[in-house]
């Protein structure tokens, strides 16, 4: 089988790597993905964009890429689209118009349950099968036969879950991966560690960042131990302070108590509040709300992100309750998704 793949995000390729373990050896990947997984049409670094200006500069390239992928699909048996809805939804439309009978599978769906619900109709119109990693996601879809909850990829990728709470004397800090996130949170983290003495402070930095970029963006990190292994560090840490994002769900599943903190540009936060109608930012808290339960962890946003608030949460969190609830979360998500998606592709 020849499978056209469009996986443009680094996170998508982590999921794709796990998925490939369950695909038959005769499944050949073509298209856009990490070069470690085969011979892609383009290396992922050529697709990285930073901001609106960069996106506009590359607009012609992305139209060209879309057309190349549509042509490439001619000789492919099926299509697998992963995340990146800004590119993959228009691609799905063009593929459906060009090949009305081609099977198009979408894995890691756009978060239409959070905003832009109009995407639901497009996904149902363009795609043959929808692989959901959010248990309640199917509620907003009309065609229940197209959408399947397949499990969550993090349950494939996390190798070790905590069996018990222990004091390891290690505290993890994750200020995010975007420049604004890092520059906003690092000054607060530097002050915070002064209030938590006699600990090892481990700063988790994305593996893609080189030394020059780290020195430029993070500022003084002389009091931190550097780690580029998220899961291992979270498993070893007794507590964590984490910027909003997938990392909060990783910590929640592993069983490491943490505090979520996020500072966005004021205009971006204002716009986000207008369009995203959610009571919580952290995925674990969103899941718990759907289960009718109290939030799993605290969330501090914008002006509430202060040294005093983070320290108070660290000292007063019911860590045993958090740990017990992390098991509930794992049961809610049930299983990893890779094997189930592989079955859908090969069916």
The total of helices stands at: 15
Give the topology string: H per helix, E per strand: EHEHHEHEHEEHEHEHEHEHEHHEHHH
Tally of strands: 12
Low-confidence stretches: none
The pLDDT mean sits at 93
Descriptive keywords:
15 helices; 16% strand; 12 strands; six-stranded parallel β-sheet; alpha/beta; globular; 43% helix; glycosyltransferase; 347 residues
TL;DR?
The protein contains 15 helices and twelve strands.
What does this structure look like?
- The mean pLDDT is 93.
- This protein starts with a strand and ends with a helix.
- With 347 residues, it is of the alpha/beta class.
- The strands form 2 sheets. A 6-stranded parallel beta sheet has the order 2-1-3-4-5-6, sandwiched between helices.
- It is built from 15 helices and 12 strands.
């Amino acid at each position: 089988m020849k499978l056209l793949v469009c996986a443009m995000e680094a996170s998508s390729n982590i999921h794709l790597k796990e998925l490939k373990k369950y695909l038959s050896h005769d499944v050949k990947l073509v298209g856009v993905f990490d070069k470690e997984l085969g011979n892609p049409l383009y290396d992922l670094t050529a697709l990285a964009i930073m901001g609106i200006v960069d996106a506009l500069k590359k607009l012609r390239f992305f139209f060209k890429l879309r057309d190349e992928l549509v042509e490439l699909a001619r000789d492919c048996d099926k299509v697998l689209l992963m995340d990146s809805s800004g590119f993959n939804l228009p691609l799905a439309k063009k593929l459906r118009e060009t090949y009305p009978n081609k099977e198009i599978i979408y894995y890691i769906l756009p978060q239409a349950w959070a905003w832009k619900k109009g995407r639901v109709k497009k996904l149902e119109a363009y795609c043959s099968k929808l692989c959901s990693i959010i248990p309640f996601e199917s509620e907003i879809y009309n065609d229940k036969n197209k959408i399947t909850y397949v499990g969550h990829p993090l349950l494939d990728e996390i190798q070790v879950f905590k069996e018990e709470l222990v004091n390891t004397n290690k505290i993890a800090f994750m200020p995010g991966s975007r420049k604004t996130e890092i520059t906003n949170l690092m000054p607060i983290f530097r002050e915070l560690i002064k209030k938590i003495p006699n600990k090892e402070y481990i700063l988790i930095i994305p593996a893609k960042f080189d030394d020059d970029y780290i020195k430029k963006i993070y500022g003084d990190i002389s009091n931190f131990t550097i780690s580029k292994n998220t899961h291992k560090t979270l498993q070893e840490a007794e507590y964590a302070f984490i910027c909003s994002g997938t990392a909060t769900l990783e910590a929640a599943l592993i069983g490491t108590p943490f505090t979520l903190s996020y500072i966005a540009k004021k205009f971006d936060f204002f716009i986000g509040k207008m369009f995203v109608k959610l009571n919580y930012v952290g995925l674990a808290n969103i899941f718990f709300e759907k289960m009718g339960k109290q939030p799993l962890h605290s969330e501090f946003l914008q002006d509430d992100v202060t040294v005093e608030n983070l320290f108070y949460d660290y000292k007063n969190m019911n860590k045993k309750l958090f740990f017990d609830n992390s098991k509930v979360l794992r049961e809610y998500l049930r299983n990893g998704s890779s094997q189930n998606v592989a079955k859908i592709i090969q069916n």
